[in-house]
Amino acid sequence: MLFWLSIALSLCCILKTKNTNSLNRWDILFFLSSWQIFNLKIWQNYLIDLGLGYAYEISATILILLALFYLKNRGIKLNFSFSKYELLLIRDYLAMLAVLILPIGFAIGFLKFHPIENPKLILETFAGYFLFVAPSEELIFRGLILNLLRKWVNDWLALLITTAIFACIYSHLSGGGIFPNWKYVGLAFLAGLIYGLAYLESENIIVPILVHGATDAVWRIFLS
User: Fold this and answer.
1) Most-buried pick from 37, 55, 184, 206 (CB within 10 A)?
2) 195 closest CA partner among 182, 206, 184
């Protein structure tokens, strides 16, 4: 029931929202009815109960489609182009992430070198993060929330607020029986800050999507 209710509410938000220069109630309701339902795995669990395979992938695809329609009706235009300029930015921001996060991650024990050796699993991990995880999260956080906040406050404050919200979604992911997992939250904040900076410099959603996808894939394959 909650699956269909959340879909209906998200579609209602898409139809009701307008292109304005301020936050409105539809923005908040859309975030709660789409992202939070997705984040709490309610869609995923419902699809699993139906006996459907690839429940996460289907849920992420639903979220991506809803986000794209909401962004369109909200009047937020995202750049999806790709050129040598974007490629160089991706390189620079990945290097920045490596220099910033790797030493901290290893020092606090969050990162440990433990590579996956199964080629099929490596391919599936890359595909999952680049096609589903990074696009769904970047469309919601950098595409929607960051751009909505930029209509209300300056870019730096919008970036910090967006990054704080992004980091807090990881507090429910426990590590070693610890809740909340502040190590995860802290590193997610640093990563989210880089993703946001990548978007603000490029004004192109493809850049943070690829930086995010590469970061998560390398983490899962080599450092998890």
Assistant:
1) 37
2) 206
**Shared domain check, 122 and 180:** yes
Contact 32, 140 (CB under 8 A): no
Per the structure, the count of domains in the chain is 2
Q: Is the pTM of this model over 0.90?
A: yes
The burial of 49, by beta-carbon neighbours within 10 Å (0-12 exposed, 13-18 middle, 19 or more buried), is given as: exposed
- Domain with 9, as residue range(s), is 2-74
Same domain, 57 and 27: yes
Within-domain flag for 92: yes
Query: Is there a contact between 194 and 74 (Cβ–Cβ < 8 Å)?
Result: no
Each residue's pLDDT tens digit, 171-219: 665 555 566 778 889 999 999 999 999 999 999 999 999 999 999 999 9
